[in-house]
Fold these 2 entries.
Entry 1:
Amino acid sequence: MNEAIERVKVLIIGSGPAGYTAAIYAARAGMSPVLYTGGQPGGQLTITTDVENYPGYPDGIMGPEMMEDFRKQAERFGTQVRYGMVTAVDFSAQPHVITVDDQKTIHADTVIISTGASAKWLGLESETRLNGKGVSACAVCDGFFFRGQEVAIVGAGDTACEEAAYLANICSKVYMIVRRDEMRASQIMQKRVMNNPKIEILWNTETDEILGEDEVKGVRILNNKTGEKREISISGFFVAIGHQPNTAIFKDFIHMDQSGYIKTIPGSTRTNIEGVFACGDAQDNVYRQAVTAAGTGCMAALDAERFLAEQENH
Ligand code: NDP
């Protein structure tokens, strides 16, 4: 039982573009980083298809493939990539104490938080009950099950548009449920859905209930201008209404905004705790792109390196 507690210089939590980029830089700086992947190794890009806006890939690349490349590059320079979930932290003293899978304890001189964000849900009882039985937050993962069938997607951001267009390639019809009379998505993405004959946009519309006992059979929608309710027959219901940062385990120590995004000191990845840095979507409510996440991952590794150098000089 008295297993020696492992001590690491840099512990990276999360395996999206931010975490792996931090790992590449930390490994190349000789800091022997240990990276825990979390529950979704590779992060959000592993549930997307083509990534067309990451510089260096003129023909685009599939998200999962890109994240494999990130992992290989991090490992090439000596990062230890481990499959596991950080379940608790204690940042009250140096070194920081990290618990993995409720079992293993690690002492870390520096911690880089790159835990990203996860999909939000509407919060309907029927949505929870039918999750995995026709309700999904990932068109790319589950769209195939509804080949040739009619589906609905909720949301009006870039994600909803991208997923609606993806579903339209597979399904016979896609209803897009939009709660206002305009979309938040970029113009180019809006045009893509509006010009797609297989996508019908239902403006000023909310989801009243998802219908079906053991599988999705339809959805009852409410027009919030007229108060009219009606039922549409569908077999897949997709939710694409944004994300929330995966930061709950840090809340007792780290300063965050009201939505749970970690506050960093402007121009750096430093948090309110010495030696703890945050990068990627866990601290970015504005840009939320793979390339910006990677950029802040690089910053976090450089900040950690400087912090360790200062400690050694004292
Ligand atoms: P966003 O936060 O941008 O959009 C969320 C959408 O969901 C909004 O239209 C919002 O409506 C709607 N919504 C939120 N809550 C509810 C609810 N309870 N019921 C109904 N609708 C709801 O999230 P995204 O995931 O779309 O995008 C996140 C970020 O990622 C953005 O910056 C986006 O630009 C970027 N992104 C870029 C892509 C690309 O460039 N290829 C692809 C995908 C994402 P309302 O507008 O009324 O608030």
Note: The first strand starts at residue 6 and ends at 13.
Entry 2:
Amino acid sequence: MARIETPRPIRGTQDIFGDEQRRFARVLEAFDHVRKLYAFQRVDIPVFEDTQVFARSIGETTDVVSKEMYTFEDRGGDSVTLRPEFTAGICRAYLTEGWQQYAPLKLVTSGAVFRYERPQKGRYRQFHQIDAEVIGAAEPAADVELLALADQLLHELGVAEGVTLQLNTLGDAETRDAWRTALVAHFEKHRSELSEDSLVRLDKNPMRILDSKDPRDRPIADAAPDIDAHLTSEAGAFFEKVTKGLDAAGVKWTRNSRLVRGLDYYRHTAFEFVTDRLGAQGTVLAGGRYDGLIEALGGPHTPGVGWAAGVERLAMLIEVTHRDRLDFVIIPMGEAAEAFCTNLIADLRRRNIYCDMAYRGNLKKRMQRADAAGASHAIIVGDDELANGEIAVRDLKTGEQVKRKLAEALLPGAGATYTFLALTKGPEGLAAGQA
Ligand code: ATP
Ligand code: MG
């Protein structure tokens, strides 16, 4: 028979397993915990949308829309796109589902997002984000709350050390127009030194040159005029309220006047949590205020602010992982023992006892696997012992093993079933049991 070749995984996708998966799960658990502390509701939205949802809201000139989207025609001839981020889909849902009635709405979501990028460490084509948004709140208090949530999450994950919150303001519309003019004048002077990408940005969205990673652009971007000279008093006051609020909430921040965000519709607050522990992929969490976005989707003027973080990048920073709880492993040796244990373990699991059964290999192998799986004790049931009404309980850490009378450890229940008795801790007893 001809050898069948196994299809390869798609470039830039991941199979997340073992320790990596535990880190990943921990990020999501901590996020779910913190969002509850801050009274944010969870939503779930589609993985794909009408391409217009992203093209209009993220902005045609951004890298995401111009070169990173997974866009295809479906069988009906409609152009659909796999979500490259969450904000656009959430804002679309806000309008089409009539969620305006709940404003201001504090929402979180998480899941897979897709971007056609060059894969490298910390950069994938299918990756995962956690996302938090406040829609319908124009108050700087919303920005402060979102940043405090992010900060608390990083602390809860134990990664806050070495991660800095960099904060900037992009001002209001008037500020941006004035700043834009100053930026264009500056970049025009250096036209011949700019990268090709930045020449396009110069015509379409000059602010985004500040965000360029191209080494040719960096010195010119770094020498560009600050927004501060152009801030209107309203925009200045808004920013001050955000920074004062962060100080009051005990959230550390630093000003980075070079920081702009990819989205065309950002206003006022823009921020990134950055670390130098992940090489070039140092931004773990990023966001800002997008007061023009919902209008771009055809809705009424609606303020919004939010952030997203890469789950993989956060997971890479986590040091400790906790294994899933496993109280003990049952090891049947022999046919009668296996039948008995099949009944026993079903009963234990129905009683919320975290346990597993090892049914492959010799006794030593099974105990090694039980230990490696993180169980503290093994319950060994042999045919002969069973006939004598006994089981053995082994402490997998110390190797200490004691015989227990079945009648003391387990109570016969109705029919052929056994009921878990008082497997309490103690020199004689089984570990980790509760009946
Ligand atoms: P970058 O500058 O690294 O490309 P970005 O500005 O495109 O990031 P955002 O759109 O702000 O990223 O997405 C929020 C977060 O998602 C980022 O801060 C990062 O942690 C994560 N992220 C973005 N792109 C990827 C990717 N291709 N693979 C893994 N994580 C990513
Ligand atoms: Mg990017």
Note: The pocket of adenosine-5'-triphosphate (ligand 1) is lined by residues 85, 115, 117, 122-124, 127, 129, 262, 281, 283-286, 308-310, 312-313 (CB under 6 Å).
